[in-house]
Amino acid sequence: MTDVLLAVGTRKGLFVGRRRGGAWSLDGPHFPAQAIYSVGIDTRRSAPRLLAGGDSAHWGPSVFHSDDLGASWHEPKQPAIRYPEDTGTSLERVWQLHPAGPAAPGVVYAGTEPGALFRSEDWGESFELVRPLWEHPTREEWQPGGGGLAVHTVVTDPRNADAVTVAVSAAGVYRSRDGGESWAPSNSGVEAVFLPDHFPEFGQCVHKIAQDAGDPDRLYLQNHWGVYRSDDAGAGWTSIGEGLPSDFGFSVAAHPHRADVAYVFPITADSDRVPAGRRCRVYRTENAGADWQELSAGLPEEPHYGTVLRDALCVDDSDPAGVYFGNRNGELFASADDGDSWSRLASHLPDVLCVRAAAVA
Fold first, then answer.
1. Taking the C-alpha atoms of 211, 213, 214 and 218 in order, what is their torsion angle to the nearest 10 degrees?
2. How far is the C-alpha of 96 from the C-alpha of 340, rounded, in Å?
3. Distance (Å) of CA 274 to CA 152, 307, 328
4. Spatial separation of the C-alpha atoms in residues 117 and 119, rounded to whole Å
């Protein structure tokens, strides 16, 4: 069985798990008392680099990295992410740390609050503001979602380093095809049920986007009401929520190897943010959303109230794939067989905010 590195960001620190020969261990917390809203695992290097976005109530937000699987951590002497003085603002939180992929070695993107995108060319040690998105003419009309005004998702095209897609809460999807020099709203077909115009150019509250393993132009989107698919890299979106117990939720993940396979964790409603039907269930599609299968083997049968947040459902790159999720009850679950069966890795952790996993040597 492939060895796996698992990083779990919580309200009170980062926990690092390892699977060796089928047996799991979990240590931490690293950064005790800090909320860890973002984690990245960069496997493009000879030794994987762990990136963590910490949020200290005393020292403020920062980005840390480790090149020894969490045994030691480095924080740059100068803040890795700093808003230029002329923006008149400062960093509140790092919501996303995304290694860009093989087409852009050394490049890491950071999505932040207030809503901005930063780019690093030195593996995440220093970042520069992507000004064309910050200065986009629609930006003055962006509104904060329930968690704030944040760039919380970054998707890059493995074929083209200049193709970048981001999700902003609550402004929707924006795309660049020239390395961030220009951006366009890409929300056609995505409904904003809370606005007078249900299908505006921008203003949707997108919760998460995932990219299909077989076709990078196929994207899956979990919205504030609605699950969608795009077959043209986000230019247009089609609803695929039929068959789910609820199409409200926060998270979506795509299988790392199998085309047309994606996972969601349905939530009852925006006004009642608990698992749909009070049941702890992941749903999987194997045909790009034509239908959905409930995955329940090994998950709790009793009424359940653990909400899974936008970055708290993920996959690793094993074959078969490992699938993982953590919830606001402090539980952590894992599947080693594409989601067919589950086991509980931990209970009584702090509130789980994000989960990332990768196969490692």
1. -10
2. 28
3. 21, 5, 10
4. 7
Q: Which amino acid is at 61?
A: P
Cα separation, 348 vs 361, in Å, equals 29
Residue 187, CA distances (Å) to 8, 29, 55, 198, 345 in order = 31, 39, 31, 11, 37
- The CATH topology of domain 4-359 is Methylamine Dehydrogenase; Chain H (2.130.10)
Q: Both tokens of residue 8?
A: 């779990």
Q: Which of 106, 89, 93 is nearest to 37 (CA)?
A: 93
- State the Cα angle at 223 between 218 and 228, rounded to 5°: 35
* Cβ atoms within 10 Å, residue 328: 19
Residue whose pair of structure tokens reads 């005790």 in the numeric block: 32
DSSP notation for 217-245: T-EEEEESS-EEEESSTTSS-EE--TTSS
Residue 294 exposed, middle or buried by CB count within 10 Å (0-12, 13-18, 19+) = middle
| Digitized pLDDT (tens) for each residue of the chain, 361 residues in all | 689 999 999 999 999 999 998 899 999 999 999 999 999 999 998 899 999 999 988 889 999 999 999 999 999 988 999 999 999 999 999 999 999 988 899 999 999 999 999 999 999 999 999 999 999 999 999 999 888 999 999 999 999 999 999 999 999 999 999 999 999 999 999 999 999 999 999 999 999 999 999 999 999 999 999 999 999 999 999 999 999 999 999 999 999 999 999 999 999 999 999 999 999 999 999 999 999 999 999 999 999 999 999 999 999 999 999 999 999 999 999 999 999 999 999 999 999 999 999 998 7
Model's pTM, two decimal places? Answer: 0.97
| Interatomic CA distance for residues 260 and 119, integer angstroms | 30
The span from the CA of 284 to the CA of 212, in Å, is 13
Report domain extents, the chain: 4-359
Max CA separation in the chain (angstroms)? 55
Closest alpha carbon to 145 in 224, 82, 77: 224
